[in-house]
Every structure is written in C-alpha cells, then in structure tokens.
Input
Amino acid sequence: RFQFLRRAPSRLVGTLAAVLVSLRPRQWVKNLFVFAGLIFSQQLFTGAVWTALGAFAIFCALSGAIYLLNDVADRDRDRLHPAKRARPVAAGRLGAAPATAFAVVLIVASLALSAVIALRFAAAALAYVLVLVAYSLWLKHLVIVDVLAVASGFVLRAVAGALAIDVEISGWLLICTVLIALFLALGKRRYEYLALGDAASRHRPILAEYSPGLLDQMIAVVTASTVTAYALYTMSPETVGKFHTHALPATIPFVLYGIFRYLYLLYRRQLGGNPSELFLNDRALLWNTLGWIAAVLAIIYGPRLG
Output
C-alpha cells in the first residue's frame, strides 16, 4: 500500500506529461489565424487585443483536445507510422480512456468560457469542434472532402477571432485563408503518400484514392489561386479605401517567396509532413513570415500611428 502511495504522484506526473505532449503545443501556431480579424480591422493597439488573446487560448485548448481524440481514434494506424508511433497514446504511455476523458473535459470547459466572450464566438468554436470531430471520425475517409475539412478549420479560426471582438473580416481574407490551408493540406498529403510508400494506405486509407500526379495538379491550381486571390485583395478598391493606402501590394513578394520556399522544401528536400514544424524550423521560411507580418503592420498601421 505504501509503495502504491509513493508511486501515485509519479504516475500522475507521467500522465500529465503525456497529455501535454498529446496536446501538441508546437501545433498551436495554427491558431494565430484567430488574430486575423484583430489585425486587419486595425484593432491591434486597442483593448480588443485582450479578448483576442482569450480567444486564441480557447482555440489552443480546443485544438489540443481534438488532437487527443484523433490520437485515440488513430492509435492502431499510428503504430505503423515511423514517427507517429512514438505518440503517447500509440506508444501506450497514455490510455485511451483517460485521454478521451481529458479531451471531453477540455472541450466542455473551453466552450463554456467561449460563451463568456460572446455567444457568436461560442457558436463558431462549437462549429470548429463539430467539423474537426467529424473529420476524425468520418470526413478524413472521403477523398477531397478530407482536405476541405482541414481547410475549413482554418477558416473557422479566422471567423471566430473576428466574432470574438465583433468586427467584420474581409471575404478576400477568408478566401486567402482557405486557399493557403488547402495548399498546406495537399502538400502534407503528397509528402505522406511518397514518404510512407507501400504502407501509405495502411496508415491513412484515404491516400489510396490519391496519386502523386493528382496531388501535383491540385497543388498547382491552389498555388496559382492563392497568389491571385492575395494580389487581388491587396489592390481591391475595398482594401485601398479601408486602409487608405495603395502600398499593400508591396507585400506580395513575401507571399511569393513563402509559397516557392515551401514548394522547394516539399519537392526537393522531401519535407512537408508537418507544416507547422516546417515554418518554425526552416529559418528562411520563418524570417520571410516575420518579414511579411512586419510589412503588413507597417503599411496598415503606419498612417494611423503617424
């Protein structure tokens, strides 16, 4: 009995550590899309930033809970993957029952807190959970729908961020968001298809419905569409009138370089299995992204600060 009592704290610490790893904090960079409404409504230097930070924290919790549920659903397939088999659930360091229970508690608590911010924000957060749970259980087995579902998660992040601070978000920005999300999701599918080889369909059955040629064509379409949509957004009369500047097209080179750099890493370096890690670890991509952010902030906030 005393040995059990001595071991209990260490087991609890081990379980919590496994849960934290399963929440994948490094993936929370995706939730930065929540700040799109704040930045492009020119509210960054107002009190709305605190509400946006709260919305960001809630989406970090929700996305982490979805990762937990996804790990439980995919634990058998993850054991066939050279890297994913080290995940706590697949490796047996975290049981399916406690992982599911923690995810449910985290979702319920996060949705309750989201209602405190705004009911419309809570509705968007709930829609995000429903779409991603449906993806884990069903939508990821439907060809093309699987990548569209992933992209919709990014759009819901941006929409929720705007609803949290009660501002409108440009339709152009939503189009750009869904296109860049599709670009990354298709790139990830291509990487998985080639990296896993004959085991690809065993790990992710939907990969059997794709081919390198099909994915290449889809990536080409989305790449061109992303650049075109962003260029049109920067030059549209609506954008010029809102920000009172014609300088936003100066940020297009950052977008071009970022897309081309990602394609280089995907096709020449055989990377792209984890886009979030790629953006954090590739120095050129990271500096380019920071440069784009700095340029956008300088252009749309410069006149106001001056």
The mean pLDDT is 87.
